[in-house]
Amino acid sequence: MSADGRLTLPLHAVAHGRAGDKGNRSNISVIAYLPEAFPHLVGQVTEDRVLELFRHKGATKVTRYLLPNLNAMNFVIDDALEGGVNSALTQDLHGKTLSFLLLGGVEVTVPRACVPAGSRYLDG
After folding, report:
1. 31/70 Cα distance (integer angstroms)
2. Please, what's the b/e burial string for 83-101 (b: 16 or more CB within 10 A of its CB; e: otherwise)?
3. Which of 28, 84, 19 is nearest to 51 (CA)?
4. What is the pLDDT of residues 19-72, one digit of tens each?
């Protein structure tokens, strides 16, 4: 914990996600567990940061769509699925596991109030 009471945590500590596909595009939704966390996620989980995380998969562009009434955002990641379902030689043809790459591969810094009660990331 920092001196100002903020915590640096994996994204999955404050949000959940869901992944899908459309051709050679993956789309990943990130939904804050608590509404208080959403503005912090918007400021830190950016298109550039997501593109850098998925560049090894061949990603060329990321577009983020904000859904503030749902405390969520949706990322559309171009060229991340090795050509899509009919072309890819990967076991995860639809990219369903890519949400965990995002949730586990990005750290965010948030106030304690943004972490759900009972989280293992909170001190006793």
Report:
1. 7
2. ebeeebeeeeebbeebbeb
3. 28
4. 877 777 888 999 999 999 999 999 999 999 999 998 987 889 999 999 999 999
* 80-102 pLDDT, tens digit each: 765 444 444 454 444 456 778 89
Report residue 94 as tokens. 């639809």
Per the listing, tokens 């050509």 go with 83
Is the pTM of the predicted complex or chain greater than 0.70?
Answer: yes
| Domains in the chain with CATH codes | 17-114 (3.30.70)
Residue with tokens 């503005």: 39
Query: What is the DSSP track for the chain?
Result: --TTSEEEEEGGGTEEEEEEEETTEEEEEEEESSGGGHHHHHHHS-HHHHHHHHGGGT--EEEEEEEGGGTEEEEEEET-STT-TTT--SS-TT-TTHHHHHHHH-EEEEEGGGSPTT-TTS--
Q: Which structure tokens are listed for 44?
A: 């830190």
